[in-house]
Design a protein that fits this description.
By secondary structure, this protein is mainly β. Helices cover about 5% and strands about 25% of the residues. The protein contains one helix and 13 strands; from the N terminus they run E-E-E-E-E-E-E-E-E-E-E-E-H-E. It has one helix at about 170-185, and strands at about 1-5, 15, 25-30, 40-45, 55, 70-75, 80-85, 85-90, 115, 140, 150, 155, 185-190. The strands form three sheets. The chain has a six-stranded antiparallel sheet with strand order 9-2-3-4-5-13. A five-stranded antiparallel sheet has the order 8-7-6-1-10. It has a two-stranded antiparallel ribbon with strand order 11-12. A hairpin with an 8-residue loop joins strand 4 and strand 5 (about 55). The chain is globular, with a radius of gyration of 17 Å.
Length: about 210
């Protein structure tokens, strides 16, 4: 999907999210900010209603000036987050080590825009300035390539079933790009937050290079 985000003062706004009890969820969220300060790209992965796997980034371009492409590749081995075809995060399947991975439930795609000024901008310190409304984010060129789910919530065979996404990973060029993004533009990783996990980091943090 291509997005062009809210220009100017977008504090308190969040573009793209979904929720539900016991749900699986793959998040690309865009946390607005006050004028002159950068958007925060917030990513998270939920399985069976539990997330707490946040990575955040500041972009290397102005996401309000033009449309950019944001992609999620989700298969049985991994989840890859990409911006303009540049990978920024990979969440690998570590079920064998006891890490839940979202694959037992079908999912829908939600493209939303909502007020979250209790947490979204600088930890909730900066609130939405409603005198700047309306806030407009623009969407275009949505494309989904996936297995279909029938009325019994079981995956059905489809023309897309054996497409490249089902085994897609990172090649050498992709590993170089994600290394650049995470070294230069990542501002938060739950795997570096020792104060949040005083009894030890989550097990996947010691097993994956590009969470």
């Amino acid at each position: 999907m291509q997005l062009k985000l809210v220009p100017g003062n977008s504090a308190g706004t969040v573009t793209l999210s979904s929720q539900g009890a016991g749900h699986d969820e793959i998040d690309f969220e865009f946390l607005g900010n006050s004028t002159g300060n950068p958007y925060t790209i917030h990513t998270n992965v939920y399985s069976q209603g539990k997330g707490d796997k946040e990575l955040q980034f500041h972009l290397w371009f102005d996401p309000t000036a033009a449309f950019h492409t944001y992609t999620i590749v989700w298969n049985a081995q991994r989840i890859i987050f990409l911006i303009d075809n540049i990978p920024v995060r990979v969440f690998n399947n570590h079920e064998a080590a006891g890490v839940p991975f979202p694959k037992s439930q079908p999912m829908r795609v939600y493209a939303s825009f909502w007020n979250a000024d209790d947490w979204a901008t600088q930890g909730g310190r900066v609130k939405t300035d409603w005198t700047k409304a309306p806030f407009t984010a623009s969407y275009r060129k949505f494309n989904a390539n996936a297995n279909k789910v029938g009325p019994n919530s079981k995956s059905t065979s489809s023309e897309n079933e054996n497409q490249a996404w089902s085994t897609q990973g990172l090649d050498a060029a992709g590993r170089n790009r994600i290394r650049w993004v995470q070294n230069k533009h990542m501002i938060y990783s739950y795997c570096n937050d020792y104060s949040r996990f005083p009894n030890g980091l989550p097990v996947e943090c010691t097993r994956s290079r590009f969470l």
